[in-house]
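User: two proteins, same treatment. go.

Assistant:
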Amino acid sequence: MVQTLSRGVILAVGLVFCAAVAQAQQHAALVMDARTGRIIHEENADTRVHPASLTKMMTLYIVFDQIRQGRLSLDQKITVSANAAAQPPSRLGLKAGQKIELRYLIRAAAIKSANDAATAMGDAIGGSEEGFARMMNQYARAMGLDSTSFKNANGLTRPGHMSTARDMATLGRRLVYDFPQYYNIFGRTSTSAGIATVRNTNRRVLEEYQGADGIKTGYTKAAGFNVVSSAQRGDRRVIVAVLGGRSTASRNAEAERLMDLGFSRMPATARVVAPTPLRTVAVASAAPRGSTAAPVVVARTDGSIASVRPMPRSLDSDAISRNSATIAAAIAEVNAELTAQAARNAPPAAEGRPMPRPGSVAGPVAAVKAVVGSASTFAVAEPAARPAPPDPAALEVASAGTTGGNDWGVQLGAYRAKGDAERQLLTTALQDVPELAGGLRRVEAAKVRGVTVYRAQFVGLSQQDALGACAALARLQAACLPLAPGI
């Protein structure tokens, strides 16, 4: 009996040891200088593990790309699928057949990590869970995420749904540089998702770590506690990925330690090397039933971003024009959230000198090519008429897609004195920049760490005019940051 007991104890110890080894093998981490993509530190960075809700970074990337192409709009109402409504927590509380604005689904997925919200967007875009997963994998291949395979939009454990710390950090960097106009969503500690207020699953790091501004957490029993986190201090930005953590607290501590490591080892200055733009080419076959877009093939390109002409929306696009009170409330909400983020992260501006908004990249040319500022919502335009289906032989066009509204703007700088901002607007208006002719001059006051700054802006522009104005000002060696509609 003693011998049997001893064998049992040895077996139990062996099982515990094996479990510990398995857990150690799952732990993975990577530290990246976001400006260049250079790897500063890595540990098991190419080990395939469960990404959990880090998956939602890809879901949101695709949603942002659909908006860029004009296939979706932030005010468009999405009909919740039965599949989405049946997803387990974390949840926003969606019901099958419910209609909800896309901006609220984005907020719920990015901030609360709501599985039902992510699945609702995926099912709407891809026509089904499987259809959207195919799109996700096409995007992953185009980004060079060769060790990643997706099976669903929310990251719940499925056989074969795997990734690596390297791939997840790379995807996080893509969100920072490819969609800076939307990246600010990941830094909000709480916000309205229409039917509920959602709180950020990463709020402790956002509130405690200097410069932290995103991006995504994840947890399942199989994955452990995961996070891709980013912080910016001055011109330096670090991105870290931690997968396989044992608890929220230990994961956060590890992420903060690695961000400290990154800042300590990266140079003070570096030329920003943005990721190679992706080129989206539509396939001339029929779209999946219920989908907003034709199937896509995504490829890397060394040229400018190309997009597909907007396709007719098959969702319930009541794409509503809000009344003035609702518009004002939306503007106030976004402005308050962005001001709170800036107060946490940005140093006060020197007297009379421009201070870039969060997400900006030094240099006017970089701002035009790689940066669209995380901006306030300026206006909600009347919905444009639905475009006719494109000629399959001419699906690829050379310029970025647009929703067609005059809800863009440009920012020329932020100043400690209101008079300096007004003087900058007047000086710019007198220059030969025809793209600004139809814009309205505005000085926006904001508090940054208790200091009031005044942002010199032209608002009420089209996307084409905003980007064109910044290109023209760059040629004149003047600073300019395009401002896209906020989420």
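Protein 2:
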Amino acid sequence: MNGRELARVVVTQVSLHSAMTGCRLAAPLLALQQGYSASAVGVLLALFALAPLFLALPAGRMADRGGARLPLVLSALMAIVGAAAAALWPVFGMLCLAALLTGASASTALIVLQRHVGRAVAHPAELKTVFSWLGIAPAAANFLGPMLAGLLIDHAGPSPTHELGFRAAFAAMALLPLLGWALALRLPGEPEAAGAAARSGAAEEAMTAGEVMPGEPLAAAAVAAAATTPLAAAPAAPERAAVRDSVWGLLALPVLRRLLFVNWLQALAWDVHTFVLPILGTERGLSASAIGALMAAFAVAAMLVRMALPRLTGRAAEWQIMLVCTLSAAATLVLYPWMPGALSMGACSVALGFALGAVQPMVLSLVHQTAPHGRQGEAMALRMMTINLSSLLMPMLFGSLGALIGVGGLFWLVGGVLGAGARAVPPLRAAESAGSAAS
């Protein structure tokens, strides 16, 4: 994949994802202004993850069978309809519809593009680089969407937080996906990814031949087989049908289960920050622009760390970086509620962005390398389903718990979960060693 094509993919993802992140800021702020409770806001935010939970696997399978163009065009259409509905009728029901459609759009596009770039590389060593650059797209969207929405909410109407400002914000979010639509039509055809086929196929052959037990991650025998398989090879032995037939075959891979758990920890921290920050900022009298700036600071930090990630992974093992980032995120969440104003809260947002932003590209690289050939899209969809299930359930749980323990208690609770769950990271060194040997 050349730089121009990768840039086109990144811009496509930014345009589609920004519509969702902008709506995710504007919708709860409008709901709070209309007098809805924190529990209702939790339900509203959960809807951003409801449709993706059911569409993730079909989207991954559609991409596996037919390529990226059709799913991306459908993603753009969903985002346009959802944001436009909220702009025309800014009532709670339309906010829920916007949440459903823009959430489905962003999730589908992310799965499809992650699969597309992963299959387009010719060598496993390139995976970390392309996923790091693709990881910039959600981070950039988390900056662009909330910042643009916050500015329009405060300045597009006759007074800050006037209904016209919210309408303008939703209308802007409806226009952004048009760029993604245009770029999706210009994406090249389905990449062959012969190198990826050889790596995944060789690892699966090693499993079915008895060189690696089904319960083990990619061990030395599978690595040796993958490293010596010619690039043109793409084994498709019938004995691997058990792995191919259903999603349970993917979940039977221990390394994939561990990767999904580690990824869920990061998603949990991301969700609590997204849910609590608008409520905490409103309680402390911050404007919509200030809250948008705090979310943008988080996104910029995530974007910067992903730009530096290829160099960082050259100096330290991936599992070590993931462990440090997980523990750093836990510590930042514990400190966050004690921050008194916008500047100190911004510092915590930046620290949290650095910690959480570094993990996703490494997880994506390992998921792509450990997934069976021809099922990378499905594996990416399974990862996205895990995130969306968390994003669906956690805001509702946060809304209920927040009424009991306060928003500060939510940060402390999630920080403790991250600290306890960090022990799952060190065993991933086996998967990392397998990927490095194969490259």
